[in-house]
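User: Hey, quick favor. My workstation is busy. Could you predict this chain's structure for me?
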Amino acid sequence: MRQWLSRNFTLIFILILALILRLPLLNGSFWLDEAAQTLEADRQFSQQLQIEDDFQPPLLHLITFFAIQFNQSEAWLRFCGALIPGLLTIWGTYLLGQKLVSKKVGLLAALFLATSSFHIYFSQELRPYSLSAVFVIWSWFFLLESQKVGQDMYQLKPKNILNKFFALFPVSRDFFLFLLTSILGLYSSYLYPFVLLSQIIFLWREKKISQTLYAIAIPSIAFLPWLPSFLGQLQAGQALRASFPGWENVVSFSLWRAPTLTFGKFLFGVINLDINFSFIAITLIFCALSLIILFSQRRQFWRQHRQKLSLWFYFLILPFLLASLISIFVPVIQPKRVIYLLPFLYLLLSFLILGTRDQWSKLNFTNWSLLILILAINLFSTFTYYTEPNLQRENWRHALNTLHQDYQTTDTLAVFTYEEPFSPWRWYEQKNNDQFPTLSTGNYDTSQLENLNIVLSPIGNYQNIIVFDYLRSLTDQENLLPKYLTNLGYTETRIYDYPNLGFIRIYSRLNPESILK
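Assistant: No problem, here it is.
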């Protein structure tokens, strides 16, 4: 045990550092999608697969369902559904780097990932982005492990129960684990098929015919039970796009902006990518250092490592190209949805910085400069994320507590220009014994309502009306709700301003006796 700890001391330090960096803000308020995820998980087990309105596979829903049986705190649910997968991704990045090049490359890539504010952010979010990344990195690791000599078919002697179990299958243990992680990946993200397709093309190019067929057949058969639900979600998503103008621009970037924005988020993390002098200068320095390192390599280096470097076509380029093509028809491209590519970018950068050097002292000024620049960007971005509320998640929990302190539930109504009260409102409000009454327009867009006056008629029975600017630029583009309140005699008396949540406006009738009975 002591020898193992000594050999893996640096990796353990990186994992502990990663954990420490992911603890601040872990218990922050759920935002819209996280709260929806939790509300769906907080149902009976028989309802866990009824997630038509969430265009995601069910694996995270099931994980959250079992986690929520023990504790409902934000930190616990995020720890189970996002933070643990994030740490496992860092570990897998190290192992893959060690396998491809060297232990130092694996450690450096793991350090980059551990300090990345982009990876930290989504290791703290109860959505499936961190979960899918862990299956991508480990599936590639097991796939490449299975390519060792003698691993095409099972060669290990059944010395223990585990090996006897794997002996039941006509594939190697590593390839079996590749198939298993691929199946779990398919049930974690709808972008995972682009990774699996890249792996299938890799096997086919390597002339691994039997493995190629297994990689096509087994995950496909395993996904078939969920296929009807996927088609239902796809149909619901298309209906949402038709009835909710502008939503497509919220959930995805245009095909032409996606590559630059994805690279920008991977490099700079969660900080706002304003096109200013600092942003342009750092980007140019990063690109210049990378190009200098690239062109300074000798031909012998490229010939020697050509096969290794070609793997990054399957790791990085091909999955992104495939996802981009699908985005022409279904909007799916956002940096967070392809965060599973981030470990491979860091592995590539680590390979360029270190090459096959076994000693840090052999690095020249340019290599050290790029290494320090990446770490400096990561640490600055992470610190900024910790200290800037506008980079953090919507603080619905604090907003509801403040409203309950300032207003009575007996004479205050919350109005939502949406199908129903927003999911964070429902999640945090259900914890209060005394809840605000609510009114929803029941439609994604108020302009589509046949008679808005009838829908909003109960408003007149309350002295104070809570109105959210949140998403109202999409759901009430003609500003019909404030106009209705003004015509009814209400005046805007107070505004709460919350980063990312926006303005919460309070409309009141200054003369309580004028309230409609």
